[in-house]
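Reproducibility note. Readers wishing to regenerate the assembly model reported in the main text can use the exact inputs given here. Chain order matters: entities are listed in the order in which they were concatenated for prediction.
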Amino acid sequence: MSRIITIGREFGSGGREVGKRIAEELGIAYYDNEIITGIAQRTELAEEYVHQIIENKPIHYYPITVGQSFNNTINPLAQKTGAIYAEQSNVIREMAQTSDCVIVGRCADFILRDLKPLRLYIYADMPSRIARCRKKGDHGEGMSDRRLAREIRRIDKDRAKYYSFFTGQKWGDRCNYDLCINTSSASIQDIVSAIIGMLEKI
Amino acid sequence: MSRIITIGREFGSGGREVGKRIAEELGIAYYDNEIITGIAQRTELAEEYVHQIIENKPIHYYPITVGQSFNNTINPLAQKTGAIYAEQSNVIREMAQTSDCVIVGRCADFILRDLKPLRLYIYADMPSRIARCRKKGDHGEGMSDRRLAREIRRIDKDRAKYYSFFTGQKWGDRCNYDLCINTSSASIQDIVSAIIGMLEKI
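Running the prediction on these inputs yields the following structure tokens for the assembly.
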């Protein structure tokens, strides 16, 4: 059975925690920010800069080829992002080929599609996501629920844009996943146990 | 743990088979057409007629109240469908309250929401659904793949209309399910084993 597990996740749904715990339970590698570190080391770009481009401040995703074909100028920011994505893909492939692993985000489900990973998508309703953010305390401090919900949607929108730009597919579309799991009404621990139970059978 | 399991499913995805096998494995009741039979017996409508209205030849779903408010006439077909739905809801509630069970379709996830059933949604990509229909042999004989795909989409569209009319929710929207399972690349037997493994943990 496949021990390469990719996880797409809505912000605040607990997807990272699910990924970390699955990796712990199975005794296999876990990657998310580590990938960025790897990329940064190889491309000699500062990690913070890479992180900013990939996650927090997405640039406008004009396909590079379009810029070149019609304008005959090269958008250096787009080119840099393309290079980062290419490097990121290499790193992800190397990691998956080296050992069994859980990879959260980073279009890994698409990048590794020929290796047939188990593709999970973790989601939850908005009240659960708000509650999780408040509990973790790393988002939403001093924000009303309404504003935090807007912020959560904004982050997801950025993820969707990034995913769609590099894969040509719709982020969160169930067709791109083997299993979509709602974390709204069960504990992460129970969900992880259930997934492990499932993995033992397939 | 909840032993009431509802299953929504795309046509041709194997949802009925998943439901039947889960019920067999757990030794609990299984319902789908049985519900219609129950309704037909209670309302003294011919089973075939009920089936035709509910699944195969959906009427135009004008909400009854709108018809009454603005037109002051009553659409007898809509009224009949409303009555069937109400009766169906009663039957489903009785079944769920009587014993643990698996219920396929019929908006059961919505009707039983206060009982917190485990809500599964079974889906697959179009090539798998076409292959499954051909294998079962009950749909698509003499049809090209393209025509069969159109027929599959039409059936799903009818299900979506029916679900949306009676629940006010979008059919297939992952938020309405606890677990969405793609049957494209695993056998139904493996998927059922995996779900049973999962059920033992939550």
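We highlight two features of this model. The mean pLDDT of chain A is 81. Residues 76-98 of chain A form the longest helix (23 residues).
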